[in-house]
Each structure stands twice: as structure tokens, then as C-alpha cells.
Design brief:
The complex is a heterodimer of chains A (about 350) and B (about 350). By secondary structure, chain A is an all-alpha fold. Chain A contains 16 helices and no strands. Among the domains of chain A are: about 70 residues, no CATH class; about 80 residues, no CATH class. In chain A, α15 packs antiparallel against α16. The termini of chain A are far apart. Chain B has one domain: Glycosyltransferase (Alpha/alpha barrel), CATH 1.50.10. Classes of the chains: A mainly alpha (about 350), B mainly alpha (about 350). Chains A and B meet through α1, α3, α5, α7 and α9 of A and α1, α2, α3 and α11 of B. Chain B: InterPro entries: FTB, PGGT1B-like, Prenyltrans, Terpenoid_cyclase/PrenylTrfase. Chain B: This is Protein farnesyltransferase subunit beta. Chain B: Its cofactor is Zn(2+). Chain B: Catalyzes the transfer of a farnesyl moiety from farnesyl diphosphate to a cysteine at the fourth position from the C-terminus of several proteins. The beta subunit is responsible for peptide-binding.
Chain lengths: ~350, ~350
């Protein structure tokens, strides 16, 4: 939505004539007085007047487009506004201020209210409760909805995910956009949109395999989507990460993802031992600190489990390699890991 | 040999210049007045510049006008209270450290405000009806700790929420599920330290993730995996290590190995050589011309590198900064003074509890 450009400032219009703006009371001689523009101080003066009178009106609502989030949310509720139109306005705001905490949160509140207004009888989460993807209960159980309700919800989720995808095109690592995306996915329960998330992250990773936000999102989708990580998920994701590592062994993201998925699925890191040792014969992989770091982890686990002196030695070699050759900025960390290895109780 | 020097006088002049007139370009910070006060005072404090009486008086008056009638501090006069600006206002007043400054804070309404943003799952929203994230936990607990209004209701489930923010990578995100990020990691860890619950994290992945944020080429830190180096993360990531050092010590590491986790020389060099501006102030990276007032962040970061465990200063000996508290982020002597004021006779016990001696020098 293109915001109307208007040459006349709002406060010169007749509907504002009765309002007396209240100047800012900084007290005498304040620290860091900001050289506000006239426009800014006047606007804030009118806003203070609205707040003091607790005025609930159209003109106050218009003013909050310029000024503030919470007051606006109360007004939208009080005045029973069409929330879909509000979403259009937010879309425009997000384009202008993609990194504003408030504007993304505002959208979350509005979409939460839309969800509640669609099915007031079954929605469990009051939309005014701030929630995060994993701390919030889903608003309802998707599978319990009627076919018509399911379609309505799917349409709403789809349009939100598309809206977020647009913002992510501008900045693929926009933290607010990703946070809001997780909230949308989780808030509407276990619907079919979760499966699309795998394809979406795969597409982003094709464009930029180092996009760690996309890897994180994939982890979120895989571990939450079907109500938990299944054995099938683990196998598929391990394969996915491995093939990414084979192409770009120096990329940290798939390495952390791989070990993260194994840990979450209660698999031992030693299961990828052959894979890592195999990479050592690939020249460019041999220089990757992550190959050696993972081997260090693997040999350390082996040493502990089998009380094996040979594994301790292998682990030490990797730590030395990391500290002295391939990752010397972290030499203190790797040398510390080496001292940890001394403490392992091995069989005589 | 070329000697790296922290140009203290230049930085002091830069900071003092901002006090009487902030340019129109800072209008964006109009909702962050307490932050401006805190940054200015903290920067002067770290540089060892005695806060002049007139500045103290003006800060007190400015913050008095910003305190909300319903508790806490907003961004400016008449603005709604916000947890982050409340944190900044209380730190600014604690830096001044006089009875007049302490008396500005209405502890009764502050408690009401903090409880009004506390959620059942242990998280805090940034403002009433605002967004949840782990910054809220840190800011709320820091403000409550300094002013002695911590209650079981305030801390219930707080550590559990923060632990859920730890991701598979090892660092913490803004809330559960979201990507690990150095800013949120510092906030979450510092909050856990205030709660005495750092043991709730996975220590191995946390240590590895933190160490991995230092960049091989530049020596500076990135904030997330595969992102670029930035001076501000010298503060956020650098701030993790003093607390992490203590966690490892508790987990049975001996003193000798505590100075291990990152390359302090590398980071100091990055800050001194690449981030100092000719006109005073510190910046994110050399390519940035426009300075955003991050001077105290850079200075604090420099301090992290200098004074953990045993002092280690790169370049000129005059680069030494004053000692700061790694969790509350105001000077150690100012924390002690504030505690003596707010806790009375119990102060010494509390000082021990929040591990004020964490930094030895």
C-alpha cells in the first residue's frame, strides 16, 4: 500500500484545531537536549495531548501511525477497526523500517487478534498475551477444525509466510522477520505449512549455503514441525548436511547443524567418524578446521567410552593441528581442550 | 615499534561535546534518552574522568522527568516505561552514586512495573504489551538486583526460560527457537549469573560457540555464525568470557587455564587500530564514517580484554581503563556503593553473592 503523501501537516487541518499541543517537559537544563526538527516536536506535542486526554478517536488513531505501537493497538480494539487494512499499513511500514522491533511485534499482535476473531470459541490463547513460538500454546488444534476453517487458516498462514518471505528477500538474515516467521508457524498449530518450510530453507540454502539463519530455521522446522524429531527426520537431515559439507567443507553452519541434529536425535557423534576421516583425503577439506574439530569431539567420546589410550592420542593430534595450523586464532581454546584430554581415565 | 594508543583525551572531548547538544540526526534516539545518559556517564567513568557536579545534577533532573508515574523509566518525558530504558536509567544513576541520584528511583513502583512485564513462562516483555525476549530478563534482573527488589515471584521460571533460548549451536537466541546471537547470549548469560543459575546451560556447546565467534583474519568478533566482524560484538561476545571463565572454574577448571578462551591481543589490536576515530569515539568497523555513539561499548569491550584475571594491556600502558562489573556493567566501586545504599547491613553478603570479586586485578 502506498502511503498518501500529504503536503499539509496534519496539525494544520481543521479536525485538529481544538487540540492544544503539550510541549515536552524535560525539566530545567536537561542532559543531551536533542535538536529536534520543528515537525518532530510539534507532532510529539499533539501526541502528548492525546495521551493526557486518553482520547479514543479516529484522529488519535491516525496520529499513532506516526507515533507509537501500544496505544495504537488499544485504539484498534476500542474502535473495532478492520484488521486486514491494518496489515496493509504494516506491510508498508516494514518496507520502510525492516529492523524495527515494534513494527514486527505489532503485526504479530494484529495477526493474533485476527486468529482469535476467526474462531472466538476455540481460540485458547488471548491475543494480547505476548508469546513466543515455543512458549505459546498453539491457538487451537488444527486437525479439530472444520474443512472450511482449515482453508481459512491455511490462507492466512500462507499470506503471512509470503509477506515474511518478501522481507527476507531484502535481507536474508533479518532477525525480526525470522522470529515472526517462527511465531506464525507455531501459533496456528500443526498444519500442513510446516512441510513447506523444508523446501523453503532448501531454496534459500541453494542461493547462499552460508546463510546460518536458514539453517537455524530448518532445525526449528524439523524439530517442531511434526510434533518432534523422528528417526526418519534424523537420517534425512544428516544426509542433507553431509552433502552440503562435501561441497563446502569450510562452512561452519552445516557442521553445527549436523552435530546438533545428532545430539537432538540421541545419536552419538561417533556415527559420522568414517565420513569425517574420509574428508581428510580431500585436499580442501583437510584445511577445514571443522573437520578436525569434529574429529577431536569424536575421538574424545571414543576415548571416554572405550577408555582407549589410542583415541586420546588421536584426539590430541587433532587439537594440536587446530591450535597450531588450521585454527590458530583459537589456540587457547584448543590447548585447553587438550588439557581436558589428559584427565580421561584410560585402561592400562 | 609502532605503539597502539587509546586516545583518552580525544574520547573524553567527544563525549563531553554530546552533552549540551545532540544533533538532529540523533532524533532517532529520542526514545532512548536514558541510554544517552548512561553511555555518556559510563564512557567518562571508564576513561577515569571524574563526573563533574553539573553533569550529575543535570542527569538527575533529566531522569526525574522520565520516570513513569506507574513505575520504571520510559525513553523520554511522558513516554511509556520500557525495561531497557529502565536498566539504563538505573545504571546512570548508580554511576553518579549520590543519595540524590539513588532517591530518584521509586522502588515500590519499579517493582510493580517489573512484575507487570513478567510472564508466567519466566520471560519478560520489554514493555507492557510489548515483545518478549531475553534482553528483558537481563535488564529487569539487573535493575532489580541493584535496587534490592528481587523477589521469588520476580525470578520464578526466569532461568528455565533463558535455558530454553540456548540453541543447538550453543549460543542463545532472543527467545526459544531463534538463531544464536551474541547480543542475546550476553544478556541471557548475565541474567543467569544474577540468578546464580549458569549451570543450567550446556557448557560444552556454549564454550565452543563463544570461542568460535572470533574471526581468524581480523581478531574481532562476529555476532552470529557466518556473519561479518563488527566492533559492537567485541562488547557482546567479549562480555561473555569473564562470566564463562567463572563457569569453567566452578566446573572444576584450575585458575591457570582460565585465560584461554580467546585471543585478547587480537581483539585489543582490532579495537585500538581499526575502530578509533580521529575525532574521538569508537566505531563498528574502519569503513564506517558516521559514528553512532558506541564509544562506551567499545571501551567496555576493550576493558573485557584488559582486566579479566590478570591485567593484560596491548600498546601503551596508559591504555588501562577503570575496572567494571562484568554483569551489571558499571564500575566496580559504583556497584559496591549502590549496594551499600540499597542493602544496608546485608550489602557485604550480597556483594559476595553476585560475585563482585569475579575480576581480580
Amino acid at each position: 500500500m502506498a502511503e498518501q503523501k500529504d503536503d499539509v501537516p496534519f496539525y494544520q487541518k481543521p479536525e485538529w484545531a481544538d487540540v492544544v499541543p503539550i510541549p515536552q517537559d524535560d525539566g530545567p537544563n536537561p542532559l543531551v537536549p536533542i535538536a529536534y526538527t520543528q515537525e518532530y516536536s510539534t507532532t510529539m506535542g499533539y501526541f502528548r495531548a492525546m495521551c493526557r486526554a486518553q482520547e479514543k478517536s479516529e484522529r488519535a488513531l491516525d496520529l499513532t501511525k506516526i507515533v507509537i505501537e501500544f496505544y495504537r493497538q488499544q485504539l484498534l480494539k476500542e474502535l473495532n477497526k478492520d484488521l486486514k487494512i491494518e496489515l496493509e499499513w504494516i506491510e508498508w511500514m516494514v518496507e520502510e523500517h525492516p529492523k524495527s522491533y515494534q513494527i514486527w511485534h505489532h503485526r504479530q499482535v494484529i495477526v493474533g487478534r485476527i486468529a482469535q476473531s476467526l474462531f472466538p470459541s476455540i481460540t485458547t490463547t488471548p491475543s494480547s498475551t505476548p508469546s513466543t513460538a515455543q512458549s505459546a500454546e498453539a491457538a487451537f488444534v488444527f486437525n479439530d477444525l472444520s474443512e472450511l476453517q482449515k482453508t481459512t487458516v491455511q490462507d492466512l498462514v500462507k499470506s503471512e509466510l509470503e509477506f515474511i518471505a518478501e522481507a527476507l528477500k531484502e535481507d536474508t538474515k533479518n532477525y525480526h522477520a525470522w522470529s515472526y516467521r517462527q511465531w506464525v508457524l507455531a501459533h496456528f498449530g500443526l498444519g500442513p505449512w510446516w512441510t513447506g518450510e523444508l523446501a523453503y530453507t532448501e531454496e534459500l540454502l541453494k542461493e547462499d549455503v552460508r546463510n546460518n539463519s536458514a539453517w537455524n530455521q530448518r532445525y526449528f522446522a524439523v524439530t517442531n514441525g511434526s510434533g518432534g524429531l523422528t528417526e526418519e527426520d534424523v537420517q534425512r537431515e544428516v544426509q542433507f548436511a553431509k552433502s552440503s559439507i562435501e561441497k563446502t567443507p569450510s562452512n561452519e553452519s552445516p557442521w553445527v547443524y549436523l552435530t546438533g541434529i545428532l545430539r537432538k536425535g540421541n545419536h552419538s557423534v561417533t556415527e559420522i567418524k568414517e565420513f569425517c576421516e574420509g574428508l581428510l583425503s580431500v585436499p580442501r577439506a583437510n584445511f577445514s578446521p571443522f573437520v578436525h574439530a569434529t574429529l577431536l569431539d569424536i575421538y574424545e567420546v571414543e576415548a571416554k567410552e572405550q577408555r582407549s589410550a589410542a583415541s586420546v592420542e588421536k584426539a590430541k593430534e587433532e587439537a594440536t593441528m587446530l591450535a597450531e595450523k588450521v585454527d590458530s586464532i583459537r589456540s587457547k581454546y584448543w590447548n585447553w581442550r587438550k588439557t581436558q584430554l589428559q584427565k580421561i581415565d584410560v585402561a592400562a | 615499534m609502532f605503539r597502539l594508543e587509546l586516545r583518552k583525551l580525544r574520547h573524553v572531548k567527544y563525549v563531553l561535546g554530546a552533552i549540551d547538544k545532540a544533533g538532529t540526526h540523533l532524533t532517532a534516539l529520542d526514545a532512548s534518552k536514558p541510554w544517552l545518559c548512561y553511555w555518556i556517564l559510563h564512557a567518562l567513568d571508564l576513561l577515569g574522568y571524574r563526573i563533574p557536579e553539573r553533569i550529575a545534577v543535570r542527569t538527575i533532573s533529566t531522569l526525574q522527568h522520565i520516570q513513569s508515574p506507574t513505575g520504571g523509566f520510559g525513553g523520554g518525558p511522558g513516554q511509556e516505561a520500557h525495561v531497557a530504558t529502565t536498566y539504563a536509567a538505573i545504571n546512570a544513576l548508580a554511576i553518579i552514586g549520590t543519595k540524590e541520584a539513588y532517591d530518584v528511583i521509586n522502588r515500590e513502583t519499579l517493582k510493580d512495573f517489573l512484575m507487570s512485564v513478567k510472564q508466567k513462562d519466566g520471560s519478560f516483555t520489554m514493555a507492557v504489551g510489548g515483545e518478549v525476549d531475553v534482553r528483558g530478563s537481563y535488564c529487569a534482573l539487573s535493575a532489580a538486583t541493584i535496587t534490592n527488589i528481587v523477589t521469588p515471584e520476580l525470578t520464578a521460571n526466569a532461568a528455565e526460560f533463558i535455558a530454553r533460548c540456548q540453541t543447538y549451536e550453543g549460543g542463545l537466541g532472543g527467545f526459544p527457537g531463534v538463531e544464536a546471537h551474541a547480543g542475546y547470549t550476553f544478556c541471557g548469560l548475565a541474567a543467569l549469573e544474577l540468578l546464580g543459575r549458569t549451570d543450567i546451560l550446556n557448557l560444552d556447546t556454549f564454550t565452543k560457540w563463544s570461542a568460535s565467534r572470533q574471526m581468524s583474519m581480523e581478531g574481532g568478533f562476529q555476532g552470529r555464525t557466518n556473519k561479518l566482524v563488527d566492533g559492537c560484538y567485541a562488547f557482546w561476545t567479549g562480555g561473555i568470557f569473564p562470566i564463562l571463565g567463572k563457569m569453567l572454574e566452578t566446573a572444576g577448571q584450575d585458575q591457570e587455564v582460565l585465560d584461554f578462551v580467546y585471543d585478547r591481543d587480537g581483539l585489543q589490536e582490532y579495537l585500538l587500530a581499526a575502530c578509533q576515530s580521529k575525532t574521538g569515539g569508537l566505531r563498528d568497523k574502519p569503513s564506517k564514517h558516521e559514528l553512532k555513539d558506541i564509544a562506551p561499548g567499545g571501551l567496555s569491550a576493550l576493558l573485557w580484554t584488559e582486566n579479566y584475571d590478570k591485567r593484560k594491556v596491548v600498546g601503551s600502558p596508559s591504555n588501562v581503563l577503570e575496572i567494571t562489573h562484568p554483569v551489571l556493567n558499571i564500575r566496580m566501586d559504583k556497584v559496591r556503593k549502590a549496594f551499600l545504599h540499597y542493602y544496608g547491613k546485608a550489602a557485604e553478603d550480597v556483594i559476595e553473592e553476585v560475585d563482585i570479586e569475579i575480576i581480580r586485578c
